[in-house]
Amino acid sequence: QVQVVESGGGLVQPGGSLRLSCAASGFTFSRYGMRWYRQTPTKERENVASINADGTTTIYLDSVKGRFTISRDNANSMLYLQINPLKPEDTGVYYCFCPDLQKNWGQGTQVTVSS
Q1: Where are the beta strands (DSSP E) in 10-108?
Q2: How far is CA 59 from the centre of its chain?
Q3: How far apart are CA 4 and CA 6, in angstroms?
Q4: What gap in Å lies between CA 54 and CA 38, rounded to an integer?
Q5: Can you spell out the DSSP letters for 85-108?
Q6: Could you read off the pLDDT tens digit of each residue along the chain, which spans 115 residues?
Q7: 3-29 burial, b for 16+ CB within 10 Å, e for fewer?
């Protein structure tokens, strides 16, 4: 079945960087667009970055443009989110998601930005 496993989160100081990873399985990864979502303590889950199937098109939430970079490795069914520099408002749980296939969310990975 469709499965995604997020990793790479942690506690980071403001100005630092992180690369989040998402390992996908159970489907032909290279055929589907993917998204990263973020859920913070004060907001509903929001789509922060999207990428099309072949990685040629990316879309970002305005508030993260210039700091977030979504990418993918179709040969290894991996999705990535590079965040640099991190801000305290980036704190939250990050999820990867395949909108065409997934019915349930993965467990997410916690990012905490604090000094």
Answers
A1: 10-12, 18-25, 34-39, 46-51, 58-60, 68-73, 78-83, 92-97
A2: 12
A3: 7
A4: 23
A5: S--GGG-EEEEEE-TTT-SS----
A6: 999 999 999 999 999 999 999 999 999 999 999 999 999 988 899 999 999 999 999 999 999 999 999 999 999 999 999 999 999 999 999 999 999 999 999 999 999 999 9
A7: ebebebbeebeeeeebebbbbbeebeb
